[in-house]
Write a structure and sequence with these properties.
Blueprint: H1 11-14, H2 17-32, E1 40-44, E2 56-60, E3 89-92, E4 113-120, H3 123-126, H4 129-144, E5 148-153, H5 162-169, E6 185-192, E7 198-205, E8 214-218, E9 224-228, H6 229-239
Parallel strand pairs: 4-5
Antiparallel strand pairs: 1-2, 2-4, 3-7, 5-6, 6-7, 8-9
Helix pairs in contact: 2-6, 4-5
Length: 243
């Protein structure tokens, strides 16, 4: 089924885009529950306001990795054998480290470590230069912490490409963006630090009327699971009775 325009008639006459954006993360969690190995948890997070928050996060519970024979020991499907396509971008780069003055509190009793984040971009993330800079800086900070980041942008009423702006922050460009970067897109990114840091990205432009792609969601250096955006998108559409 195709991607719809949730920001213009006739669909926005039936339901506000906020309802779809608010429901999609939980459906993605449900779908990831079928493919995440034992020791990993996915949780939705929706925050509407001035602050930008992670919409969906994957956590490592510090349990043993999946067995080599494909068993997970937790009812999940082993996914270590799933091989994503080649990245559209691989560059040696450093991620600039800016000043940070903050207090971070962790619940040590739960032992959760953030390993991946899925960001459903909203109109407010794209409407002003300062909002775009804040969002891009947040994504760069997550990548610098070795958290893989997936950006999903289905906002048809703002023409900016935040993935292109993220690359611009570090002086890079993905040839897959073309001369005029698409305003609708999905991309999976990870940064692999070392003697020379390496940014890898899997970029797909989106088109209203066309299906959404499956992207790799990286949980560790060697382990990725498929993030099937089309399946979760269609289920959300049906659950909200928009079909």
């Amino acid at each position: 089924m195709p991607l719809r325009d949730h920001f213009r008639p006739p669909l926005d006459n039936l339901a506000a885009w906020e309802g779809f954006h608010g429901g999609w993360p939980m459906v993605i969690v449900q779908h990831l529950g079928r493919v995440l190995p034992a020791g990993y948890l996915a949780a939705p997070h929706v925050h509407v306001g001035a602050e930008i928050e992670v919409d969906l996060a994957a956590y490592d519970r510090d349990e043993p990795p999946p067995k080599a024979n494909g068993g997970t020991g937790n009812g999940g499907v082993a996914t270590a054998v799933w091989a994503p396509a080649q990245p559209t971008l691989t560059v040696d780069t450093d991620l600039a480290d800016g000043d940070e003055y903050e207090v971070r509190i962790y619940d040590a009793r739960r032992g959760r470590r953030l390993v991946a984040a899925v960001e459903l971009i909203s109109p407010a993330n794209k409407d002003r230069p300062e909002h775009r800079r804040l969002f891009v800086a947040k994504c760069a900070a997550l990548l610098r912490q070795r958290v893989s980041v997936v950006l999903v942008d289905v906002v048809t009423v703002r023409a900016f490409n935040l993935y292109a702006e993220l690359l611009g922050l570090i002086g890079q460009r993905d040839p897959a963006l073309g001369e005029e970067p698409a305003s609708l897109y999905a991309v999976s990114c990870r940064w692999r630090p070392g003697t020379t840091g390496r940014l890898e990205a899997w970029y797909q432009p989106l088109t209203v009327g066309q299906p959404l792609p499956t992207l790799p969601l990286w949980l560790s250096e060697e382990l990725a699971v498929p993030l099937a955006l089309e399946e979760s998108y269609e289920q959300t559409y049906r659950d909200l009775r928009l079909a």
